[in-house]
Amino acid sequence: MQDRTLSSQSIRAFTRALQSFLEGPCTPTALGHWQKHLLSEGLSEYGVYVRQIKKLEPALWRNVRESLSQGQVESKLWLYQVLRDVLPPGSYSLHVGGGWTGTTALLGLWLLPDLIYECTSFDIDPSCEHVARSLNEPYSWNGKFRAETRDLKNFQFAPHQPQILLNTVCEHQSDFQSWYAQVPKGQFMVLQNNDFFDGRDHVNCVKNLREFEEQAPLSTVLFAGELSLFDYKRFMLVGVR
Ligand SMILES: C[S@@+](CC[C@H](N)C(=O)[O-])C[C@H]1O[C@@H](n2cnc3c(N)ncnc32)[C@H](O)[C@@H]1O
Q1: Contact 128 CB / ligand 1 (< 6 Å)
Q2: What is the pLDDT of residues 196-235, one digit of tens each?
Q3: Ligand 1 in reach of 229 Cβ (< 6 A)
Q4: Measuring from atom 2 of ligand 1, which residue has the nearest CA?
Q5: pLDDT, tens digit, 9 for 90 and up, residues 47-73
Q6: How far apart are CA 80 and CA 113, in angstroms?
Q7: CA 124, CA 98: separation in Å to the nearest integer?
Q8: Which of 35, 49, 95, 234 could staple 227 via S-S, CB 3.0–4.6 A?
Q9: Ligand 1 centre from 168 Cα, in Å?
Q10: How do the domains of the chain map onto residue ranges?
Q11: CATH architecture of 70-240
Q12: Residue 23 DSSP class
């Protein structure tokens, strides 16, 4: 696998195409044809990703499609754009809490290969481990990716290592305040929440950025902002606890 930076634009085009592909009467054979086309066009990362989807049980494709919805992808492209701007040069280990299908971690490896040397995607739902591991298998071989089953509250902090913790599932944490209280001071983190109160399992949404900042006061704020999506707003805080 090449270590080059993919652009947000080409990721956008690929994930949109993949989403509509998975929405239709998709078959492993059709995916196989598309995989070969992508590989022959020199789009190897995308071709390999399609190959990995093809290997998954089709019943799991719906979950993958949901994780590639426009709102999810735009939120992650925004996140990595901001990280590229604010992160001091270095080599970081990325830990994605609530990592779901492993797409957030993969986008980090695709977009910031010069800054992120390894990624762990962990989720409280044990079924996510299999999907994330399968989809990111090529990155497991070279030691850049790991999938685990873990609750955010059991994350092993190592404050003196160049470790970035991503939590883009704050809206899912009914125990957010107690979780946040046990994050060690000095931890570099990226947090996202939203005002989509009607979402499934959304038990900790916030009305606006100010409410989110009050929930998660950072000692150093490198970024605080909001992104308007189709039917909700996403809020993001980047900085040091
Ligand atoms: C719908 S998904 C992802 C939505 C999210 N906004 C994102 O950025 O990907 C929410 C995921 O968070 C996971 N999750 C919820 N609470 C968690 C916790 N305490 N620790 C780890 N994962 C958690 C769920 O199992 C699920 O896979």
Answers
A1: yes
A2: 999 999 999 999 999 999 999 999 999 999 999 989 999 9
A3: no
A4: 100
A5: 999 999 999 999 999 999 999 999 999
A6: 11
A7: 7
A8: 234
A9: 8
A10: 8-67, 70-240
A11: 3-Layer(aba) Sandwich (3.40)
A12: H
